[in-house]
Amino acid sequence: MSKEVKPYEAEGSKKEQVAEMFDNISERYDLLNHVLSLSIDKGWRKKVVRMVEAKKPKMILDVATGTADLAIALEKAHPEKITGIDISNGMLDVGRQKVAKKGLSQIISLEQADSENLPFPDATFDAITVAFGVRNFENLKKGLSEMNRVLKPGGHLLVLEFSQPQKFPFKQLYNFYFKNILPSVGKLISKDPRAYTYLPESVQAFPHGEAFMNIMKECGYTAGERIPLTFGIASIYEGLK
């Protein structure tokens, strides 16, 4: 496993720093997210929703739900209940407002919780999703194992996460955008200049592709699909229990 990347050059665990960072940027997170990804992330989430919908789950857990974009989109899969959890209360506050505005409070509940110590009994959920969250885990294997624990036998985990394009010239364009443009725009709009420097650093340090699939296997999942998206900017990883 590569060296741990934390948001700030300061005392405190990665978990504490990630919570602080997302609290700091929560009010501008949605704007920044869509601007910096050129809104391509919306299409990626739709793909995850289609994959979830195909399994007809009744109970869904969305881990690192943030401002609840994916939790809200998952309503299209017609489950009985969607639970979103996140370590940042600032992000959840924004998410709760969005859920209420869309009249989905009966179906979607958002709770502050730690992805590495999930407050749910074993075998609770039919499907679990995580969008752009696993690379922020302090202990990746512990987080993946916890999700496996609360997943029902036959259930599946879908992880949407940034990866790294490998082919010329997209690899070079992507690296330039991620290291130069993205941090500059992020600093301009957000109140936390470090947040969007942390993003490319955390993506670079994260095990992607086959390396991540192998870690999922170590944590008890049997291999599902691995789907590269938009020239390999992101990937969907599926793990089955």
Commentary on this structure:
Helix 7 packs antiparallel against helix 8. This protein has one domain (14-164, 207-240): Rossmann fold, CATH 3.40.50.150. The radius of gyration is 17 Å and the shape is globular. The chain has 241 residues and is an alpha/beta fold. The mean pLDDT is 91. A seven-stranded mixed sheet has the order 3-2-1-4-5-7-6, sandwiched between helices. It has helices at residues 14-25, 29-36, 40-53, 69-73, 89-101, 140-150, 170-189, 195-205, 210-218, and strands at residues 59-63, 81-86, 108-112, 125-131, 151-162, 222-229, 234-240.
Relevant terms:
seven-stranded mixed sheet, Rossmann fold, single chain, 21% strand, alpha/beta, 241 residues
Radius of gyration, taken over Cα atoms and rounded to an integer in Å: 17 Å
Largest sheet: 7 strands, mixed
Apparent shape:
globular
Distance between the termini: 24 Å
Low-confidence stretches: none
- SS content category: alpha/beta
β-strand number: 7
